[in-house]
Amino acid sequence: MISVNDFKTGLTIVVEHDIFTVLDFQHVKPGKGAAFVRSKLKNLRNGNTVERTFRAGENVGRAHIENREMQYLYAAGDEYTFMDTETFDQISLSHEQLKWELNFLKENMNIKIMSYQGEILGINLPKSVDLKVIETDASVKGNTAQGALKNAKVETGLNVMVPLFINEGDILSVDTDDGKYLSRASN
Any idea where the Translation elongation factor P/YeiP central domain is (predicted)? Predict the structure, then answer.
């Protein structure tokens, strides 16, 4: 058990049989009434974000999440197969479990699989990934205003807004949190 007074961003907790990670929290001490902790939590089973208020000093369960290094091997239909890099055991995850992550997943990519008491919760991608541009809109002559952007499609199918100087075949660094262009990757 852990007190809500000890919340930290990234802490994983169990509340009412669901597993959450703490995204944000705020200790509130009103002039009248008892102190409380206002928090923003992400459900690791379904990805939903909820806001929850706890009484100061209230205890919640601590969830010990296991992260295993795995390599993405291949896709077969709606199943995506991963291999443990130490034991060579293979597991498959469904399209439903990987909706957002599929925008960044490339074959032979190393990732971390999150699990809680044997239940697989999802995957942790690196902060950014390098993806090749396979299609991009043409730059329009004269469209050189500060910060002008165009659409580019990368090898995983994700559409990214990029600066006008990006061309087909370029390798981009893309943020895995929001899918935004970070920079042109060095070859």
Answer: 67-121
Q: What is the 8-class DSSP label of residue 31? A: S
Would you give the distance in Å from CA 133 to the centre of its chain? 21
Q: How many other CB atoms are there within 10 angstroms of residue 44's CB atom?
A: 19
For residue 108, the tally of other CB atoms under 10 A from its CB is 9
- Quote the CA–CA distance of 148 and 163 in Å, as a whole number: 6
Per-residue pLDDT of the chain in tens (187 residues, 90 and over written 9): 888 888 988 899 999 889 999 999 999 998 888 999 999 998 888 878 899 999 988 999 999 989 899 999 999 989 999 999 899 999 998 888 888 889 999 999 999 998 998 888 888 888 999 999 999 987 666 556 567 888 999 999 999 999 888 889 999 999 988 889 999 886 5
